Amino acid sequence: MNTVQAPLASLSILAPCRSLPAEGDELQNATHAASFSALLRAYQHLVAARAPVFILKNGDVAWEGDIEELSALQLVAVSSASEGGGLEIESRYAMSRIDWAGVMSQVAKAVSHEHFISTPEEMLRVFASAVRAEAARASAAFRGNAVPLLGVERHAQDGSITVRFAGIWLAGDEAAEVAARDGGCVLLDHEAEGRGLKEAMVAAVMLAMVFEGTAGAVESPSNGKAKTSWFASLFGGGSSGSSERQGKGDVLKVTSQRLVQAPPRIYRSVLDNPSGGALKVVIDIGDQRAYLLRGGQVAFETPISTAQAGRWTPRGTYSITEKVRSGKMSTIYNCALPGWMRVGGTAVGMHEGQLPGYPASHGCIRMPIESALFIFDHAPQGTTVQIVDQWAPPAAAPAGGALVAQN
Fold this sequence. Notes:
Blueprint: E1 10-16, H1 36-47, E2 53-57, E3 60-63, H2 67-71, E4 72-80, E5 87-97, H3 100-113, H4 120-138, E6 145-155, E7 160-171, H5 174-181, E8 185-189, E9 205-212, E10 217-219, E11 227-229, H6 242-245, E12 250-251, E13 265-266, H7 268-271, E14 279-284, E15 289-294, E16 297-303, E17 316-324, E18 340-343, E19 349-352, E20 365-367, H8 369-378, E21 384-388
Parallel strand pairs: 6-9, 14-21, 19-20
Antiparallel strand pairs: 1-4, 1-7, 2-3, 2-7, 4-5, 6-7, 8-9, 10-11, 12-13, 13-16, 14-15, 15-16, 17-18, 17-21, 18-19
Helix pairs in contact: 3-4
């Protein structure tokens, strides 16, 4: 393969050896890539046919071919030709390997411990998290941030998901540009900041670049308007419904900490309606926001912080089983948990804690003390708590307190 200095873009990628074209292959069929995002997609298109394939179905992972053969990675430079609009790949004298056995072990452990993994989306989240962890290890000796390149295709007929591993992009500063404008690129910041907890501070920033097949963008079932990347929604890339509601409720003043997220808001016309219906708490992992609903309408909303990467906040439908306003202590981290509300029979609860603006807890649902006590005072024991990856709040109730009927 000939080497030509690319004036527009050049990427370093640890590519699966089996997916690389032969020396005599002509690469001129690729269109001219005018951006890093376009160059990544052109590369993905080139290697997709021979990339390692994994099938996620019914809590299990299957693969095609020999697992050892799938593990070998070759460092290559991928560039856009200065003339002719072709794609060029230059092999470098460096190799690595990704431990797929380690990926399978992590997935199996998660499936055995997380009984609530019951959907293809949850399985994909678990698989992608394991790939990111092993990709970081595989690229530890190389410069750049490890960005797993995954081609994702969902099959509605049997509920399975096909994942094609296109390699590991060793991303530099250009990653921020791609992340800012590409809905299929999710930024995961591992920095953890807790209240009184000795949590590890991980400085490395990891990205998961997802080339979606049939998944595409999904439409919110609530209002038919809000759209987000299906895969990105698993990790918090969704569109927040709070932006549409801002200014329509009373701000709950927070003095206990400085917030970087939208402040808590109270919707009095819903909250104070005696015939408004049952109370319910919804935890939106994607938008890092919690909602107190009355009769399906938002009565209160607050920013939150849920489990950091490597930890887990359970998904599913539970109820508040224990309430301790003050005096509750963590037996693991020896810190106070004011406004404690246990979620079901789990070790996870809603309580006061620091909110850095991204998932940073060890599993619990942190919120400002003002928000924790507000929900504590309004949601009695037994109140339903639903924890989901993404949730679209219903439209705000009209002025005057009238409620919008929900189907």
